[in-house]
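P.,

For your records, the input lines for the assembly:
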Amino acid sequence: MKLLKVDTLNEAREKLLAAVPQNLMKCERKALLQSLGCVLAEDLQSEENIPGFRKSTVDGYAVRASDTQGVTDSIPVFLDVIEEVAMGVAPKESVKAGQAVYVPTGGMIPEGADAMAMVEYCEKFDERSIAVYEPVSAGRNIITAGEDIKAGQVFLPRGCKLSPREIGVLASAGIHQPLVFKPWRVTVISTGDELVDAQAIPASGQVRDINTYSLSAAASRQGFEVAGMEVLRDDASLIESAVRKAMQTSDLVVMSGGSSQGEKDYTADVMDRLADPGVFTHGIALKPGKPTILGYDEKTKTILAGLPGHPAAALLVFELVIGWLYRKLTGQNEPVAVPARITENVAAAGGKTTCLLVELQRCGDLDGAGNRAVRNDALVRTPSSFQTSAADQKSAALQNDAPCVYRAVPVFGKSGLMTTLTRADGYVLIDMDAEGLTEGQQVSVTLF
Amino acid sequence: MKLLKVDTLNEAREKLLAAVPQNLMKCERKALLQSLGCVLAEDLQSEENIPGFRKSTVDGYAVRASDTQGVTDSIPVFLDVIEEVAMGVAPKESVKAGQAVYVPTGGMIPEGADAMAMVEYCEKFDERSIAVYEPVSAGRNIITAGEDIKAGQVFLPRGCKLSPREIGVLASAGIHQPLVFKPWRVTVISTGDELVDAQAIPASGQVRDINTYSLSAAASRQGFEVAGMEVLRDDASLIESAVRKAMQTSDLVVMSGGSSQGEKDYTADVMDRLADPGVFTHGIALKPGKPTILGYDEKTKTILAGLPGHPAAALLVFELVIGWLYRKLTGQNEPVAVPARITENVAAAGGKTTCLLVELQRCGDLDGAGNRAVRNDALVRTPSSFQTSAADQKSAALQNDAPCVYRAVPVFGKSGLMTTLTRADGYVLIDMDAEGLTEGQQVSVTLF
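C-alpha cells returned:
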C-alpha cells in the first residue's frame, strides 16, 4: 500500500521545493493600487533622498535653537519674522540669530534654522515679530533630508507583501508600477460520485461539493488566480482529460478526493500518467491530511496536488504545503504564531505531525463569555447593541492596557466536519516526535 | 484653539458610534466566491442536518462493533460481506450480526452497522467474506447525521468575516448567495499645496502625494469600495466642492491634511458648512494622530473624517477609528493582539493615548538575525536560497515545537516617516493614564 510509505511534513515540503525550478515564479508590473496584497519581486532602492529636503513636522516658526535657550513663560525670546514659507515652495531667506520664518506642517525649513517652535508656544505681535515661550533643542520638529529613505538605500525587500503601509512608501518613492510576483493560475478539481452542486438538494447518500468553493477561496486569499473549478465523478478518463487540460492553463492543479485507498482513487495514477517526473509524495505523516499526493510536471511547469477529500483536511494541507511553498518561492516569511497556553492534555499521534485546531480565549476574561479577539470569529458575536457594553469596555481596556494572554482550547472533531474548522481560530502543530501537550504548556497558535 | 479641546480615543469612538444611525449598514446578496472577505449580515440557521446521513470517514467495512470485540492480529473475526455501497447511493441492505458492508470514505452507513473497520485492518477472502483484525468501538470512523450542523442550529453568526473556511461551510449548507454587509463607498481626498502626483519628480519643497494611495489601499483592505481619489491644493472652495460632490456618492469621505492649526487648514470649516450636525470631534488625545476631525451628515448619511496629513498617523487613525467603527457596526471582533515583552522603558505621552510602533522578534532567536515570523515583513527577507538553511530549519522547528514568544522592539521615528511604519509589525496602545512601559513588561501587539 503506497500510503504506508508516507513523508513527514518537512520531507514533503523539501521534495516539493526541490522539484520546482528556481525560475518558476514569473514577475509582472502592476499599477500601484492594484499591487495591494501582491509580493514584491525585487529589492527596491531609492534613487533620491525621501524627503528631498528638511521639512517641518509642525505648524510654527523655524528658528535657531540657541536663540530659545532658557526661555520660559515669563521670559520669552523675541524674534523677527523675516518670511512666511508657503507649502510646496522653497524659502528665499536664510535664518540668522534673532530671526524666525513661519513654516507650516510639511513645509521646507530655511537655511540657518535648526529647529521648529510650535505655533502653540509662540505669540504673534505683528507681521514682523513673535515671542517664543518654550525652548527648542536643535533638530526639534524637523525631518531631515533622507531621514525617511536615504538615496541608494534598500527600503523595501523582495518578498515583502504589499500592505497599505508599503503602498504608501512606494508612492512616496515615486514607484507607481512595482515589480511583483505573478500569482499562480490555479485549477481546482473536486472528484466524487457523491458530490452535487452547492445549489442542489442532496439525495440520500449525496453531499454538496465543498472543496471547489473552499479551496478556490483559499487560493484567492493567497492571491492566486482561479483559472477553473470542476466537480467530476470518480471516472478515471474524465479526471485524466480534465487534469490534462488544466495543466495547459494552470501553474497549479489542486485535486481533492480520490487520493486515499479507495477502489476509485485515481488521482495518483492520473498524475503519474500525465506528469514527468510525476508523483513524488504518496501521503504525509500529518493528522489530518495523510492522503495527500504531490507531483510536478517539468514540461508544462505544473505543480500537481491531490488533497484529502475531507474539506477541513484539504484546507489545512493547502495552507501547510501549497501556501508554504508559495511563501518560500516568493521570499515571504511564515505567518506569526500567537503564544498561548493549552487548556488540557493532548496526546500526539505517534509518528505523525498533529495539526491541532484550537480556539483562542483571552485569559482572565472579564465578561466570562470567552470573549475572543480574533478577526474571523465564527461563534462569538460582539453585542449588536450600539452602545458599548460594560463588558465591552472592560475587555477593550483589557486589550489596551493589560497584557493580553491567550488560552488555547482544543477544538476536537472529525476532519470531515467543516464547523470544527470555523470554531477554531487557528492551529498548533504538534511535532511527530513530541509526547503530546500537557495542560498549561505554552504553544504557538498559527491563526487562520 | 479648537484642537486643545480634544477627545480621548474612546470618547471619539463613542461620539462617532452615537452619531451614525443604527440602520446605517446596508446589506446585499453576493455569489458565494465573491463573498470571500465580506461580513455576514445575518445569523445563518441550517434548515437541514449536515450531513443528512451517517457517513464513513474511512474506506472500509460497516460492521456491528460488538462483532469485533476482542479480535486481534492472530484471532480475527470473519464477517459476510452482503453489499458494496457506492458513493452517493443509499445502501439497500441492513447489517446484522456477522455481516459487513463495504463503504468508501464519505459513503453512507447502512442500517444496523454502528462502526467502520478500516480497510487497512481487514483482509478480503472472496467477494463474500472478510477477516477483521482490529476491534472497533461503536461510532468509530462514522460522522452521524447533523454532526456537522444540526437542523435549526445557528452555524454562522452575523458579524462573521467570511474566510475560506466559512465559504466551505456555506457551500455545505447550500447557501450560494449569502447576505453580507454592503461595503462602504469611500472617497479619499488629500489636500496640500506641496503635493505632486506619485509619478512626478517633486521640486524643492514639494513631496509626492502618499495619502490617497495608502488610505485607498487601507480602505480596500477593509473591504470598502474606493469611489474616488483626489489630490487638491489648499483652496477652501476647491475642497468644499470636492467634498460636496463626494458626499453625494460616498458613505465615507476621508480627507487628509488641513486638519491641524495651519493657516490653510480648511477641513473643519468645510465639514461644518456642508454637514449637519457636522463636526463633533476636533482632535483626539492620541499620539500620533492628534489633528483628527470627525463629523457626520444626516441628510446624505455620510461619515466625514479629517485625518492627519502625516501618512503614518493618517493610516493609524484610519485603522483605530474608521476601522473600529466598521467592525463595530458589522459586529466583527477586534483583531487579535499578540502577547510580547517590551525591550525597553517607554515613557507615556501625558494625557494622550500613545500608539507605539513595535517590531516583533522571536525570543531565543536561533539565527540571531531577528528572524521575524510576521506576514508583511518589510525588512528581514528569508534566504532566497531554495534550499532551506540550517537557521531556517531551526526557526521552523522553533515555530512548530517550541512555544514562540516575542520581543516587542519599539520602532521610534517621527510620524511623518513612512518607513518607521513599514519597519513595524504592529502597535501597542499605551493608555493615557498609564505611566508608560517598563522593560520586560508584557504588552499586547496589534498586528498591521
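Two observations worth noting. The longest helix of chain B spans residues 311-329. The CA atoms of residues 236 and 266 of chain B lie 6 Å apart.

Regards
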